[in-house]
Specification:
Layout: H1 26-37, E1 40-45, E2 48-53, H2 56-62, E3 68-69, H3 74-83, H4 95-104, H5 110-115, H6 117-134, E4 140-141, H7 142-159, H8 173-188, H9 200-226, H10 235-241, H11 253-266, H12 269-284, H13 286-299, H14 314-326, E5 332-337, E6 342-344, E7 348-350, E8 355-359, H15 360-363, H16 383-386, H17 407-424, E9 425-429, E10 438-440, E11 444-446, E12 450-455, H18 461-469, E13 495-502, H19 507-520, E14 524-531, E15 544-549, H20 561-569, E16 580-587, H21 597-608, E17 612-613, E18 618-621, H22 627-649, E19 680-689, E20 698-704, E21 716-720, H23 725-734, E22 742-744, E23 757-759, H24 760-766, H25 776-785, H26 789-799, H27 803-808, H28 814-820, H29 828-834, E24 841-844, E25 855-861, E26 864-866, E27 873-875, H30 877-883, E28 890-896, E29 913-918, H31 923-937, E30 945-951, H32 961-970, E31 974-979, H33 992-998, H34 1000-1008, E32 1012-1017, H35 1019-1039, H36 1046-1056, E33 1061-1065
Helix pairs in contact: 3-8, 6-7, 6-17, 6-18, 7-12, 8-9, 9-11, 12-14, 13-14, 13-20, 23-24, 25-26, 33-35, 35-36
The protein binds flavin-adenine dinucleotide (FAD), NADP nicotinamide-adenine-dinucleotide phosphate, protoporphyrin IX containing FE and flavin mononucleotide.
Flavin-adenine dinucleotide binds at residues 716, 721, 771, 811, 841-844, 858-861, 863, 865, 867-868, 874, 876-879, 920, 923, 1066.
Amino acid sequence: MTPVPIPQPPGLPFIGNIADIDAVRSIESFKALANKYGEIYRLNVPGASLVVATTHELVDDACDEKRFKKVPNNVLQQIRAGLGDGLFTAYIESPSWGIAHRVLMPAFGPMGIRDMFDEMKDVGTQLALKWARHGPHKRILAAQDFTRLTLDTIALCSMGYRFNSFYSEQMHPFPDAMTEFLLESGRRTQRLPLPGIFYKTQDAQFQAQIDVMRETAEEVLKERVADVGNQRKDLLAAMLKGRDPVTGEKMSDQSIIDNLITFLVAGHETTSGMLSYAMYRLIANPDEYRKVQREVDEVVGKGPITANHMSKLPYISAVLREALRLDSPIPIFGVCPLEDNTLLAGKYPVHKGEFVQCLLSTSHLDPKVFEDPLVFKPERMLDENFNKLPKNAWKPFGNGVRACIGRPFAWQEAVLVMAILFQNFNFVLADADYKLVHNQTLTMKPDNFYMRAILRDGLDPVQLEHRLAGTEVPLSKLKISSGDVTPTSNGVRGQHMTVLYGSNSGTCENLAQRLAMDAVSHGYEVTTLDCMDAAVERLPKDQPIVVITASYEGQPPDNAAHFVSWISSMEDKQALRGSSYAVFGCGHHDWAQTFHRIPKLVDTKLEELGATRIADLGVANAAKEDMFVSFEAWEDDVFWPALDALRAKEGGESLQEMKHAPLKVEVSKLRSSMQKNDVEEGKVVVTRVLTADGEPIKRHIDIQLPPGTSYRPGDYLTVLPVNPKNTVQRTMRRFGLSWDTTVKINGAGTRLPTNELVPAHSILSGFVELAQPATRRNVLALADIATSEADRDALKNLASESYDAEIIAKRVSILDLLETYPSIDLPLGNFLTMLPQMRVRQYSIASSPLADPQIASISFSLITGRANSGRGSYSGVASTYLDGLEAGDRLRVSVRPAHAAFHLPPTPEQTPLILVAAGTGIAPFRGFVQDRAAMVRAGRKVAPAVLYHGCREAGRDDLYAEELAEWEELGAVVVKRAFSRRPEESGGAKYVQDLLWVDRERFLDMWRRGAQLYVCGSRKMSKGVEKVVKSIRQENAKARGERLSDEDAQKWWDESRNVRYATDVFD
Ligand SMILES: Cc1cc2nc3c(=O)[nH]c(=O)nc-3n(C[C@H](O)[C@H](O)[C@H](O)COP(=O)(O)OP(=O)(O)OC[C@H]3O[C@@H](n4cnc5c(N)ncnc54)[C@H](O)[C@@H]3O)c2cc1C
Ligand SMILES: NC(=O)c1ccc[n+]([C@@H]2O[C@H](COP(=O)([O-])OP(=O)(O)OC[C@H]3O[C@@H](n4cnc5c(N)ncnc54)[C@H](OP(=O)(O)O)[C@@H]3O)[C@@H](O)[C@H]2O)c1
Ligand code: HEM
Ligand SMILES: Cc1cc2nc3c(=O)[nH]c(=O)nc-3n(C[C@H](O)[C@H](O)[C@H](O)COP(=O)(O)O)c2cc1C
């Protein structure tokens, strides 16, 4: 085959391609370059030429040890300063590598590792007890505690040294020195080639860190040598006593010290990363989580875990393998060709002296090897499937003779720890909408991944200690706690109640809080208010349970998936006997097939499992009604009466109505503590109007993302907005507050900051939704307070027959009513209690990370106009807030992934795209096309793409026309527009769906060639597109002499959803 040249990004004199590699997140850069340049590319960095191989075929070939060998690459060269000729960083030709390798292999064999079981369990137990003692609400930074675990384990098992990281406040200086040493090693490879004087301080610190590591190792060695009677069978003993079977030599003191440090360095960050990723994947995949737990329950039961269990947990092994496939802690390793002009995969010439870098972050996701490569499927890693994988398809432990020597060590440690944890805890994300972000030091770990650990079986920490030690009291004697998931303390004493919610964007959580407040006046005290996932295996039997949940594409919300998986997997029909419950569901009828699927499922399932239904399922439809209004109606008309009736039937005395006494809530920081924790600060870089003067405003904003945040084209940016100034001003005016007024809220059951002085305007701006329509109960409460009889009568009327027409249809808020009826003397505290908390809004990201991974753009329409209520103007909360931002302003944002189907196909060369949008619906497609333009510029060939865009008039609101023209020129896309004001300029097509019909020949041609169709914009437009595509299909069938009925066309369309097309619509 003719050699194929390897593409290379254009570099700069002296520094070559350094600017193409992010100094902190080089792996992200390598992946992005693979997206741009394809399966292989070359980079020149000072002192090294790197050829990055990104597919299985290329990695497989580079693993041929007859033609390639490991030579410490530019990063390992730096690490040699600390680890010397230790196994990890040694040249294979070095005699000390051969001796150490042969001396240590037996110590890492099955018997050697088994001997370490008890010490591994000792440290694993320390971790479990720490989590148990901290309780179910503690936010655990997974990677940090797993790092304590793995560092303590490797130090104890390899040299009998106890860092005691779980006990000491002050960590031993070794871990800190090591972390800094590794970070600096990476940075040194990115240095500009300046004289040494420029790096004097860094060099001195680097040496100081090396000194700490070496002195620690020397001390350990000295102590052991002095302790002549020591009988430990650890790695240090093997190094001191072992003889190389080939040369007969022993390891030198220098080599022992190099390798002691090597084990500490190589043996803990990696295992900690693997455990953290496995934990993240399991929490994100409830069904697989349940399988792990079932395996542990069946194999280990409730007794102590022994070394014999280790080989009987195949599903845990499969989980670890799959976690390593998706995220390898060492995501890249390098080899060098033995000969010049070696052809990689028979076509790419690579040369002696350059490093072929095997990028596992991409080769492990090669669609030619792994079906649905991004999906976590441990089943594909069960032994029978794992053994069938193509050679070198799974390489997290490196290659050949230089592969990881510590693999059996890491495996036993990880399987053991997973078994301890899953036997005794349930886990939930501390931030339900956390999405995986990587932290790259020398190895990769999840960043900011916080979870909560909730003890199972009603255990307390003391009982856990007994269980792990094998001295447990039988389970029947344990007091099973009824599960105070998030105990609220509101100072009232009533009959206990549990309220659970499943909620992504806050509606159901808001309703749950509302119920918790209302409960007091019915004589109940909500002792548990938490997400549904926190209640897995902990549904109480002695109090009513209310579940309020939404559905997303028919699936549970992020914080309810484990609960749903748990109740779905239970077979014992009496499992929940004794519990009583009621369910309320929020949904949207446009998701017709899965309308209210989750609330219905929970309602049915709980009954099937023996629980008693207190009241009929309540539901609300976001498309038609206000959720708060429907919920309130269900509460008053269905739930409370049913609960009272049940209580009476069971002979319970009727409960005293109580006044709502303030709940005590601790709020530490303004806003951040009330809101999802991963909504972080971004910064506005550029903002510009996209429409001509006089047209409704549509705006573009470039936002610099919080550090470590990444996204894919098609994902969303969630924004935590601030209320429009004029709405806040109106409120302040109505309550007679001046701008500098501060308030101290002693209210309760609230996420507002309490017991501290806070400016009134910051509460009204950032914490509450002010424009939500008033609920019936709100209106009645206002009527009660109104002092004028006329106002009272008018309000009572509004709360009854004219409510739907006058309040809901016109979206009349409490504030509107307060302004209209001045005789209502509502205290500010009561007003705040009536308002829902501020919700985040979502926007499609309108850019590609290939243009700049740190920038996410959005395009949005400003919602403004005469208020439907007739009172002044209406300003949408988030769009007004965004519209007012300027470059340099900071805002709270986070990235939320779109549905899997709404991403670019993995094979840009092969899959044509049909993109259909109207108005700002073009947002995600700007990102798609920008991505393709970057690929084309890098020399990649992409399959054709056509973008159909609906707007009003050329030059007025044809968004991004200039950029699109440029990208069209490049060949990244063909743009077709429908002009609704001037259909004559778009071939008679008024709307984008009409244009699709006009252009149906092209549509059909692309469809036949396997095109993916994406639709984004308003719901009406999307329905229009659906109609037209079905018609095109019917017409085409007719042309072939077939008849496709309307029903069949509909069936075809429904079945093609998320397979051949994906829609992203919300309004
Ligand atoms: C997944 C997803 C992606 C999205 N992507 C984008 C995007 O890329 N670009 C974009 O522009 N939007 C997008 N949206 C919509 C966006 O999230 C917001 O809903 C939109 O910007 C309006 O928010 P707001 O806070 O400004 O309005 P809100 O304050 O939430 O007000 C909206 C409500 O006010 C009502 N209303 C409107 N006019 C009046 C009036 N005159 N009087 C009384 N009531 C009125 C509306 O019916 C609606 O109920 C997306 C939504 C979702 C769910
Ligand atoms: N990911 C997402 O879910 C996402 C992303 C971006 C935007 N959006 C949503 O998309 C919607 C678009 O808002 P916008 O303000 O940008 O649009 P717009 O400017 O109001 O409308 C854009 C074009 O669509 C036309 N149009 C009106 N009715 C239509 C119909 N039934 N079928 C097809 N085209 C029609 C308009 O024609 P006329 O001249 O007749 O008005 C206009 O030419 C908003 O609801 C926004 O929230 C959603
Ligand atoms: C999940 C955990 C682990 C992973 C993913 C991992 C990964 C790797 C990889 C990819 C290599 C090859 C690097 C290269 O080619 O440059 C390697 C080598 C090595 N690892 Fe591990 N490792 C893990 C755990 C451990 C542990 C627990 C130890 C020590 C007890 C250890 C010690 C070593 C050593 C000494 C080498 C060098 C071997 C040689 O070249 O002779 N590793 N590891
Ligand atoms: C992407 C998306 C998918 C949805 N899928 C469904 C669905 O399958 N069934 C349904 O009844 N409602 C669906 N809805 C509507 C939500 O369930 C509804 O808006 C609910 O009020 C959200 O509650 P939350 O704010 O507590 O998360 C969907 C909403 C969105 C944004």
